[in-house]
Each structure stands twice: as structure tokens, then as C-alpha cells.
Amino acid sequence: MRIGMKTVCLSALLVPLAVNGASFSGDMPADFAANPAAVNMTQEPKVVVNSGRLEWIPFKRDLTLWPSLSHDDKRPTPKPRKVMLDEPLNGDPARGRELALARDKGYCIVCHELPGEAWPGTVGAKILSFKQHKYPNELVFQQIFDSRAFNPNSVMPPYGTFGILNEQEIRDLVAYLQSLD
Ligand code: HEC
């Protein structure tokens, strides 16, 4: 697949974005859910008092009670991927907004509040006045492409690595977020 990106170390940019005030220890393996030895296992967060940290405690649980297509999907989980953005961004903010609201595309609104949009979720941070952060495009692009680069336990879908959105769609989303007053 040729998508005009090189895999490089973005260590200079690997500052975590705001994570709703929470910080998680990186103990949980990124491919935990796809590890065959861990079928019907789950992990539960336990607060480590006065440390600001969570510990992940594995325990067995019968997950067949909650049927999900993912139980039958034996493909290995693609590893987190670090990417570099070729500037200029060339994103279309109006298309980015559509993607952010579309259920079969970004559906960012299911987790994030976006300015002026109805029925937001509260799982992710409010994405309001985004422009004021002055995040480099590259950082926002990586966050959407594969947020596990910043947080191995991220619940945000790795849109690029999993092929949910293509490169241009992610560029459009970056342009949309960067345009939010
Ligand atoms: C399943 C819930 C979920 C979905 C869907 C989701 N996110 Fe997130 N997002 C999060 C969470 C949780 C965080 C906090 C960091 C983390 O856990 O990785 C986050 C963090 C972010 C951040 C960093 C915010 C900041 O100010 O530091 C951005 C930007 C972002 N998401 C954009 C998006 C975009 C754009 C989409 C849609 C393409 C999207 N998110 C879809 C849950 C989600």
C-alpha cells in the first residue's frame, strides 16, 4: 500500500495529549485481546491509592455471555504504527466534519464533544477550541492514525493502522479539528 508516509521515530513529538486528567500505566499488552492464551480473560483496572496510577489485574470471565463478532476474529491485532505526515496537509475541513459525524467512518462524536454538534459521547476529551492548542498537524495525524503510539491502552480506534480511514480522510479530519475556534 503506498500512502506516502514513512515509518519514523517521532520521539520528539511523543508528548502525550491531554487524557481527561487520567494517566494509565502501560502494563497492559497492546495485543491482549488477540492473544489466544487470553481467551475469556479480561483485565480490570485497580486504583493504586495516592499514586495517580491504575494497575491492570487479569482475571477469567466467561465472555460468551456477550456475543461479539470479535470473538470469532482470530486475526492478530496489527501492532501500533508510528507515521510521519508529509506536509502540506491539504485537508478539507468540511469533509472532515462529515467524517467525524458519520457512523460508518470516524464517528468521533460517539466519544468526543465537537462544537455545535448534538449527542456527543463523554469517553474522550471535549474537542472544543482545538485551534488554541496549536498542536502540530503531525501530532494530530498520528493521534487519529494510531493513538496507541501515545497511549498503549488507548480505547480510540487506530483508524489508519486498521484501515478504517484512508490517509486523505485522516488529513481531512486533521484540517477540521485544526479549524475549530
Ligand atoms: C471509542 C471512543 C473514541 C472514539 C470513537 C474517538 N476517540 Fe479520540 N480519544 C478517545 C480517548 C479516550 C482519548 C484520550 C486519549 C486516549 O485514551 O488515547 C482520545 C483522544 C483524542 C484526541 C486528543 C485530545 C486532546 O485534546 O488531547 C484527539 C485529537 C482525538 N481523540 C480525536 C479523535 C477523532 C478525530 C476521532 C474520530 C476520527 C476520535 N478521536 C474518535 C476516545 C475516542
Describe this structure in words.
The chain has helices at 93-101, 137-145, 167-178, and strands at 41-48, 53-60. By secondary structure, the protein is of the alpha+beta class. It folds into two domains: 11-22 and 78-178, Cytochrome c-like domain (Cytochrome Bc1 Complex, Chain D, domain 2), CATH 1.10.760.10; 32-72, no CATH class. It has a two-stranded antiparallel sheet with strand order 1-2. Helix 1 (93-101) crosses helix 3 and helix 2 (137-145) packs across helix 3. It is globular, with a radius of gyration of 17 Å. Residues 1-25 have low confidence and may be disordered. Residues 17-20, 100, 106-108, 110-112, 123-125, 127, 140, 143-144, 147, 151, 154-157, 159, 173, 177 line the site of heme C.
Task: Please tally the helical runs, counting DSSP H or I stretches of 4 or more residues.
Answer: 3
Structural class of the helices, strands and pairings? Answer: alpha+beta
Radius of gyration from the alpha-carbon trace, in angstroms: 17 Å
CATH architecture of the largest domain: Orthogonal Bundle
Provide the domain count: 2
What characteristics describe this protein?
alpha+beta; Cytochrome Bc1 Complex, Chain D, domain 2; two-stranded antiparallel sheet; 3 helices; disordered N terminus
Show the helix and strand layout.
Blueprint: E1 41-48, E2 53-60, H1 93-101, H2 137-145, H3 167-178
Helix pairs in contact: 1-3, 2-3
Bound molecules: heme C (HEC).
Heme C binds next to helix 2 and helix 3.
